[in-house]
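README: folding subset

This subset contains proteins for which both the sequence and a predicted structure token string are available. Records are stored as plain text. Below is the entry for TonB-dependent receptor (761 residues), shown exactly as it appears on disk.
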Amino acid sequence: MNKRVSYYSFLLLFILCFFKLNAQTKKTTAKQLLSEIETEFNVSFSYADQSLSGVEVFIDLNNKNLQSILEEIEQTTSLQFNKIDNTFYSVTQKDQQLNLSLQELEEVVINHYLTSGIKKHNSGSISITPSKFGILPGLTEADILQTIQALPGIVSVDETVSNINIRGGTHDQNLLLYEGIKMYQTGHFFGLISAFNSQLTQHVTVTKNGTSAKYGDGISSVVSMQLSDKIQENNEFGAAINLVSASVFTKLPLSKNTEIQLAARRSITDMINTPTYNQYFERVFQDTDLTNTEDAATSKNENFYFYDTAIKFLYDISSKDKLRFNFLNIYNDLEYNEEATINTNNEASVSHLSQQNIASGLSYHRQWNDKINTLTQLYYSNYNLDATNYDILNNQRLVQENNVLDAGLKFQLNYQLNSTINLDAGLQISEVGISNLEDVNNPLFKSYIKRVIRTYSSFLETEIKSKDKSAFLKFGLRYNYIPKFKTHLIEPRLQLSKAFLKHFRAEILAEIKSQTTSQIIDLQKDFLGIEKRRWVLSNNTTIPILKSKQLSFGLTYNKNKLLLSAEAYIKKVNGITTRSQGFQNQYQFVNAIGNYQIHGFDVLINKQFKHVSTWLSYTNSTNRYFFKDLNNSSKFANNFDITHVIDFGSTITFDQLKVALGVNWHSGRPFTSINNNSTSNTIVYNTPNDSRNKSYLRSDLSATYNFLIGKSNAEVGASIWNIFNKSNVLNTYYTTTDNNINKVEHQSLGLTPNVSFKVRF
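--- output ---
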């Protein structure tokens, strides 16, 4: 390894000296040159791939500043650079300025947020570009939903991507959009892996507050995922494998104006038993029907796998008309055989759990002129959770189903009044139907409930920015009408930011939002105890419409690759139910309606050196429930109240090698203790959430190395989650079994290794 590095170092030095002595100008493609400039001057370019297609550049970078280099490129090519801020430029062909002007990305305030590929915008939102993603501790790949948990104010109380808590909210309060389509399933392996393949995903935007008025639903956050929308000239293929799954993807231009993008991923866990799978299995299935054995004579043999497939078809009808079709299929499947000897007879059964989300959409974009463009989208999302659970010892079969059907039409109009004022308006019609089935054979019982809600929405939003880009204002109103409840909802949204004293920026974000879908838990053992949450619709009585109000103020200092950021916020959510919060105490079987209010602040320090990026973030928050009919009408700690969170991370990049080390610590999650009056079969609880688990502490390490296989780019990676195998208690509750009170403690993932290999050609 050292000899090889020395050899390449000598070869590189020789080549540099040769060109220094014999040539002041080199010939390269514009795309390659811009990539070199990004690295050399710590800037970022946004461009359509075809803007650079076939463009060759003859230029020397030595002893020149950034401005002179860009001017020389403009003089010798058809490219034009538009400065957004000191670190961000958009790139277009000079003859394409008219058609692309309305698609300019919003201004980037912070270009390198935590690591490369993560940026913060003047709207307060944070974007992630998986293809430019650097590295984070514990991750060798850009797992989308694991990555966003590195951002301040975002945590998962149980380490899963299917239970992400953003500023105190439950996971169902996050709106996850795939190409504008709402997704109801977000994880593989029942929450340990993101269900969205990062190989095709080009852009992810996370908004915690100040959401655009074009978005309804998602009272805690919006996570929007977009695939590449540009037709490229050349074919692109890629493949990857790790100790859990294998995946492939391709981008195939079918003609000058058509392209198809394909991606597929499947687990290898049903074929190969790896250390990673063993740790995942132990974490996910603890205290579920799969691991709980009531009788020593019972044995179980599981078979688990997952897959996802994605398709996008691009058709540029003309230079002004674009048609896009998307399809995504996400699937989890668990099956286990159960055998037992009862009264000398051998009994056997097969229990099964499957989870699937299919999404598809057809969109049409029209650029009418240099000021007006429209977007029309038809979409469909279907989620199914099915379980058949056999209890041999009690001769019982339980069938449970949860089905969601979400379809709608969106229309959006954008009008660029001038270089500083932009207007957005739109309409949306959506219809959501959710059904729940329970069928028991012993004793005979069957329940089927289905609800449907149609919502008509419209929005109007204006964006104003100063000519020098120092000030930004976006204000919008969203109007929702729900005929079933004869309910009118008006939701204002605000984003305001202002740069001052050259390196400072202040921002104010505010929003009012609502949503009619939520997840509840009827019984902790539902759906085999593995995926026990089910989607339901508001009925405006026992399950109200969720409504939230949020306000935040932030201050940022950014100079010489030093970022200091602080944001204070307050949020209140009305209409929550006890069943949506997952209580495992005296309120587990109580139906009550209340609210929660959280206030807190996030602080981030991020310093970049030549090869090192280091950050430290701290979150402090207080999250309290209020249920008028519970706890003597007194407030008490939220189930997701994590008072203190500290994240430290550091990444080192040296040529093709990247290394990341991180430490995650947070205070313990609340739980309800029991008092001395409890008996062998009766639990008497103290005040709700009066106790806390011990603090959580985890250290992670990861590394990747890039190299060439022929002309193909390859990457090998390795990671260790929880290096020191620290045992963390994620949740605590009490049960009664055989006249005994049992204290149950859910444990976190132990030391979990993973290795990966990727290649692109």
